[in-house]
Amino acid sequence: xxxxxxxxxxxxxxxVNRLLITMSLxxxxxxxVQALYNIVDSIFVSQINEYALRAVSLAxxxxxxxxxxxxxxxxxxxxxxxxxxxxxxxxxxxxxxxNGVFLAVVSFVVFALVGIFVSAPFFASQTAIEQVxxxxxxxxxxxxxxxxxxxxxxTFERLLQATGKTFYTMITQGTGAVINLILDPILIFGMFGxxxxxxxGAALATVLGQMVAALMAVFFNIKYNxxxxxxxxxxxxxxxxxxxxxxxxxxxxxxQSVGSVMTYGMNLILESFGAAQTVFGVYFxxxxxxxxxxxxxxxxxxxxxxxxxxxGKRERVIATIRSSVAFGVGIMLAGLIVMxxxxxxxxxxxxxxxxxxVIGVPALRTICLSFVxxxxxxxxGSVFQALGNGVYxxxxxxxxxxxxxxxxxxxxxxxxxxxxxxxxFPIAELCSVSMxxxxxxxxxxxxxxxxxxxxxxxxxxxxx
Length: 464
Fold this sequence. Notes:
Blueprint: H1 3-8, H2 10-13, H3 16-46, H4 50-58, H5 60-86, H6 90-117, H7 119-124, H8 130-145, H9 148-162, H10 166-189, H11 199-224, H12 239-270, H13 276-310, H14 314-341, H15 343-348, H16 354-367, H17 371-386, H18 390-413, H19 418-421, H20 424-446, H21 453-463
Helix pairs in contact: 3-4, 3-10, 3-13, 4-8, 4-13, 5-6, 5-9, 5-12, 5-13, 6-8, 6-9, 8-11, 9-10, 9-11, 10-11, 12-18, 13-14, 13-16, 13-17, 14-17, 17-18, 17-20, 18-20
């Protein structure tokens, strides 16, 4: 057995808590940095004026959809690849990886067309303020037509994660975020002799950071990811493998895409409540600083569960789930406490007007009540995906955001009091917890408790 194979096997032998921290911590740190630059990005944009901040906030549903496709496809690649590596089928793993890169390129082309043809009507549907529309179309067109970076970065980072090399993904994501942070003020305000680009500068800083991170991720795969040998010579898309990737990835895409639909719907509901749309956008920037570490935890958890599922190690799967739930809920509890204690200070970071503070403080304090429940549901959703039952995540997400959150928010908006609308979030999250528990029990009975039974039966036969 080679040294590389021994390193890959850590997902099957290292103590679970230590393994989970080792796999997740680099991702949690890099995603915290990403959340930080998302917040700083909006802080810089808010210095232009509130309309610029609102435009960037209204662009979020399309950006979120783009990330949903990139991450969802990569989740499918990651889970399928980790399971295949756990089964020691290295040749098939290489083919999976190459097909995954192909899907990233196709996704980029689709969103480039979205940026060119959809940006203007998208903003026209959300606001009648001409300046917000102009800012928004400029920002979104650049983010979409130059999105090759985010798709390639996400895909190649998941290839590294699937083989346990999460340290390198911390470097790529951290570097991309730092480049974004450096370029933001330079391009937005025209420093060092460069022209003042405003919101276009914010968009360029984002896509350039993503492109550098993508190039680094490609380099690390070629240099250090010896388990995978990427070769496109004679490449043809493999419909069967692509179908397997999307069996897990498509529900993830739908789950995150539903978030885009929810955000768009909420923006429509909030349009008649003054600065409420801006507050909603600010909340999403702030909550990312709480949610991103949990997503980083999940990125470390998914390959561990998928690997041990493929290797038939039931107890390690169960232990990983328990530890992940504890860590996830703990992170969200910390976020809840901070938002309850310092809402005005957090909103004040965004050059807040008095109207933003009046609407924003009760908004943050109400919405964050859902955080602890959300932590459990996020981890549960990733467990479903790692075990090849991503459709459960899809059902929970669709029910929470489209069947509960938006209808409840619309009903509460009829009171004419914007502070009532925010209660739709904790109400929806309670429904989500109930469904997640139900599906977790179901998947335990149908899948988890049967992991390794074939191996155990074979060993009993041999020993007997």
